[in-house]
Design a protein that fits this description.
The protein has 466 residues and is α/β, with parallel strands linked by helices. It folds into 3 domains: 2-140, no CATH class; 146-247, 3-Layer(aba) Sandwich (Rossmann fold); 271-459, no CATH class. It contains 17 helices and 12 strands. Helix 7 (155-166) links the parallel strand 1 and strand 2 (172-178). Helix 1 (2-35) packs across helix 3, helix 4 runs antiparallel to helix 6 and helix 10 (273-308) runs antiparallel to helix 13. It is found in: Membrane. Its main location: membrane. Pfam families: Bac_transf, CoA_binding_3.
Length: 466
Amino acid sequence: MIKDNQKHLNRLHVVIDAVILMISYLIAYWLIFGYLGRSLALPKGIYFSALLYIVPGGLILYWVFHLYEPMRVMGRRLELFNVLKANVVGALLITMVLYLAKDRLQHFSRLLVFLFICFNFVFESAFRLTLRSVLRSFRRKGYNQKHVLLIGYSRAAQSYIDRVTANPDWGYLIRGILDDNAERGTEYKGIRVLGPIANLEEILPMNRLDEIAITLSINEYDKLERIVNACEKSGVHTKFIPDYNKMIPTKPYTEDLLGLPVINIRHVPLTDSFNAAIKRLMDIFGGTVALILFSPVMLIVAIAVKLSSPGPVIFSQERVGLHNRPFKMYKFRSMEVQKPSEEKNAWTTKNDPRVTAVGRFIRKTSIDELPQFFNIIRGDMSLVGPRPERPHFVEKFREEIPRYMVKHQVRPGLTGWAQVNGYRGDTSITKRVEYDLYYIENWSLGLDFKIIFLTFFKGFVNKNAY
């Protein structure tokens, strides 16, 4: 029944999306040639016949960007971002067609295309937010529910129950749990163990279940094939929630090895050659532009450092970078010159006597980091990424903090997701690693731009810098 409802909802989506596309286009047309009174340089028929391509093309783009998938657990932001991407790609395709057919369509109004895309994005977003609100309201009242049975009482089952009970608007109703080890009647947040797994073949024909979620503990996977076969025979949709979920990423990267599915323990988008090349081009361009823009500041700081205390202007220190390779990271010198053996094994502390007056200011404002633009252009670092650490601390943290070394699968950065969220200087290393791992697994150019933008507001002044 849920599947039928989803099909009807998808058909309704398609119809309403088609209507929104047409209305957006016609409003843009009326605004330009009606309200503003601009003269038509092409016959009306060309403008109206364009709808024969724009409407189906728009619907195909919505399908490509996963906008007809169930809304139950798709985030609102992700859905709106997909709507934006579909509209931007649509605008680029229309522009390309107009360019390729410039002999016939040279005078087709570009302003109409721009207004159409803007109106369509606004109307489509408003429609989807309204629909989401209505569905959420229905599900909270008990309608449009998806009935689920859990197989296995494990950590995975508890995690699943936690999330479903915390989000009633998803519309999942957990009917119970089957497990061979827990006693019948054992309860977790109102969900009871109904009996052993052997009861599954009796329960399937008697109940109108929509899904079976297999949540076996890691030592019970020998039963998996039998359970899946029973579920497949009944025609009930089956999904697998692994008990080792803490070891794999939220968005697992699966490879097909001649029919053998291989799940990578960690998905790192920057291991893809295209993604790495795009990020490297952005680093070279951004680092060069930043060097030019900040060169007056760097010149003034260099003079101030030289006058404040004897010693070199630039201080280099060994850090661990991509693939655990060491490199020399550059900074403006902010401390009195020391022996390498004295400075390499200790962090700077509050009111540290080694820090100069100029050094205290440039450390607080992160100006001491500006020479790292040279590291970025050389390829040692990136504009955005996990901050690099000294070899001594890397050896220490790799033993103490789980997954610490994963951060070295990407280039270290001048700024990062942990830094714009407040984890700089004397803060929790464990939390810093959590944010670094999130960045590594969820990298995109959009996330990089967001971090760079936030750095200007949150990343320069560091209250934990001493």
